[in-house]
């Protein structure tokens, strides 16, 4: 376990308290032992996330992964704040809100003003360009190629965790065009302190992970659309034939069909290549509000405990 100092990162802020934000806060608090501030505009979301945090801590204690006192200390390191201005003294902020470029640009513009100039601004984006997000941090009065413009954008980096964050061993780092080597190394040290293995990808649509995973899921949905096999048989083929822990349709429900569609659209728009056309069935599922496990219905139907019932 780390000493709680990851390359100068002594305090963390997490913007967005959904399943990814909560997972990031969890590994930062339990494994890197960092104090973590969390902001989410939804009080209900925060309550759900804190309840999940307590369940995860209790489970780790029951399994002997954490001592009772370690779990108590980890929980005490988490603070919920009611505005991002409270992030002003942190060393690193990881944003984990919905996959929307305008939303992320607005948030990063504010974070760049509110946080210390040497704080790292990271996005947990699944596919959006880090270079575009970084450009939003440059004040409009300043040229993007001036020293001030370069220094503002150089502290923006992608720190891409995988769901469920406490379980998946990887973090994919994404270096935007303006990301400085020092920012990348500090991000690597932070991810390592959280107990993760690291890969580095260039700022291309979907990076490595989602440029491969989401078209694979999209193809599985097209298989269903064309009636090639039932949803159960598509999933079983990949689980038992290829050793995947979850079939692609179960995984799509787990990730969220809105997220899968948003990433697939980013791949299509970012490359202009029609091979990335989203499945029409996927579009319709999202139109219907059937977003997967989180809404209780996607390709499968889920009970209150998140177990598949049909
Ligand atoms: N949060 C925290 N821990 C969880 C969890 C969750 N949501 N779901 C499961 N776990 C833990 C369990 O508590 C258990 O921990 P333990 O070993 O300490 O008991 C462990 O994971 C295994 O869980 P289970 O025995 O209940 O179930 P499985 O063996 O079926 O594993 C799984 C569940 C780990 C989710 C496995 O099915 C899996 O690896 N699925 C693939 C997940 C995947 O591909 N994730 C990446 C998605 S893509 C992404 O995130 C990128 C984004 O940009 C789209």
Automatic annotation (TrEMBL):
<dbReference type="GO" id="GO:0006631">
    <property type="term" value="P:fatty acid metabolic process"/>
</dbReference>
<comment type="similarity">
    <text>Belongs to the 3-hydroxyacyl-CoA dehydrogenase family.</text>
</comment>
<dbReference type="GO" id="GO:0016616">
    <property type="term" value="F:oxidoreductase activity, acting on the CH-OH group of donors, NAD or NADP as acceptor"/>
</dbReference>
<feature type="binding site">
    <location>
        <position position="163"/>
    </location>
    <ligand>
        <name>NAD(+)</name>
    </ligand>
</feature>
<feature type="domain" description="3-hydroxyacyl-CoA dehydrogenase C-terminal">
    <location>
        <begin position="206"/>
        <end position="302"/>
    </location>
</feature>
<dbReference type="Pfam" id="PF02737">
    <property type="entry name" value="3HCDH_N"/>
</dbReference>
<dbReference type="InterPro" id="IPR022694">
    <property type="entry name" value="3-OHacyl-CoA_DH"/>
</dbReference>
<dbReference type="GO" id="GO:0070403">
    <property type="term" value="F:NAD+ binding"/>
</dbReference>
<dbReference type="InterPro" id="IPR006176">
    <property type="entry name" value="3-OHacyl-CoA_DH_NAD-bd"/>
</dbReference>
<feature type="site" description="Important for catalytic activity">
    <location>
        <position position="160"/>
    </location>
</feature>
<comment type="pathway">
    <text>Lipid metabolism; fatty acid beta-oxidation.</text>
</comment>
<feature type="binding site">
    <location>
        <position position="126"/>
    </location>
    <ligand>
        <name>NAD(+)</name>
    </ligand>
</feature>
<keyword id="KW-0520">NAD</keyword>
<feature type="binding site">
    <location>
        <position position="40"/>
    </location>
    <ligand>
        <name>NAD(+)</name>
    </ligand>
</feature>
<dbReference type="InterPro" id="IPR013328">
    <property type="entry name" value="6PGD_dom2"/>
</dbReference>
<protein>
    <recommendedName>
        <fullName>3-hydroxybutyryl-CoA dehydrogenase</fullName>
    </recommendedName>
</protein>
<dbReference type="InterPro" id="IPR008927">
    <property type="entry name" value="6-PGluconate_DH-like_C_sf"/>
</dbReference>
<feature type="binding site">
    <location>
        <position position="104"/>
    </location>
    <ligand>
        <name>NAD(+)</name>
    </ligand>
</feature>
<feature type="binding site">
    <location>
        <begin position="16"/>
        <end position="21"/>
    </location>
    <ligand>
        <name>NAD(+)</name>
    </ligand>
</feature>
<dbReference type="Pfam" id="PF00725">
    <property type="entry name" value="3HCDH"/>
</dbReference>
<keyword id="KW-0560">Oxidoreductase</keyword>
<feature type="binding site">
    <location>
        <position position="294"/>
    </location>
    <ligand>
        <name>NAD(+)</name>
    </ligand>
</feature>
<feature type="domain" description="3-hydroxyacyl-CoA dehydrogenase NAD binding">
    <location>
        <begin position="12"/>
        <end position="203"/>
    </location>
</feature>
<dbReference type="InterPro" id="IPR006108">
    <property type="entry name" value="3HC_DH_C"/>
</dbReference>
<feature type="binding site">
    <location>
        <position position="99"/>
    </location>
    <ligand>
        <name>NAD(+)</name>
    </ligand>
</feature>
<dbReference type="InterPro" id="IPR036291">
    <property type="entry name" value="NAD(P)-bd_dom_sf"/>
</dbReference>
């Amino acid at each position: 376990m780390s000493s709680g100092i990851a390359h100068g990162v002594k305090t963390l802020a997490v913007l967005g308290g959904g399943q990814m934000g909560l997972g990031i806060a969890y590994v930062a608090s339990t494994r890197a032992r960092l104090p973590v501030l969390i902001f989410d505009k939804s009080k209900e979301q925060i309550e759900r996330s804190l309840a999940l945090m307590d369940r995860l801590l209790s489970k780790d204690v029951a399994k002997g992964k954490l001592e009772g006192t370690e779990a108590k200390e980890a929980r005490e390191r988490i603070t919920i704040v009611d505005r991002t201005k409270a992030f002003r003294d942190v060393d690193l902020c990881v944003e984990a809100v919905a996959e929307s470029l305008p939303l992320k640009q607005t948030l990063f513009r504010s974070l760049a003003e509110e946080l210390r100039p040497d704080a790292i601004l990271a996005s947990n984006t699944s596919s959006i360009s880090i270079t575009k997000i970084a450009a939003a941090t440059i004040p409009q009065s300043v040229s993007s190629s001036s020293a001030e413009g370069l220094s503002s954008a150089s502290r923006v980096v992608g720190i891409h965790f995988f769901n469920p964050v406490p379980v998946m061993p990887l973090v994919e780092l994404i270096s935007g065009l303006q990301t400085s080597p020092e920012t990348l190394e500090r991000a690597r040290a932070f991810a390592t302190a959280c107990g993760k293995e690291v890969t580095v990808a260039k700022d291309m649509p979907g990076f490595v992970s989602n440029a491969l995973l989401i078209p694979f899921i999209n193809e599985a949905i097209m298989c269903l659309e064309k009636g090639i096999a039932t949803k159960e048989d598509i999933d079983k083929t990949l689980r038992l034939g290829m050793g995947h822990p979850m079939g692609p349709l179960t995984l799509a429900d787990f990730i969220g069909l809105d997220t899968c569609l948003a990433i697939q659209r980013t791949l299509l728009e970012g490359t202009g290549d029609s091979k990335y056309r989203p499945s029409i069935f996927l579009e319709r599922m999202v139109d219907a509000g059937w977003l997967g496990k989180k809404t209780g219905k996607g390709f499968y139907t889920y009970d209150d405990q998140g177990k598949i019932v049909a």
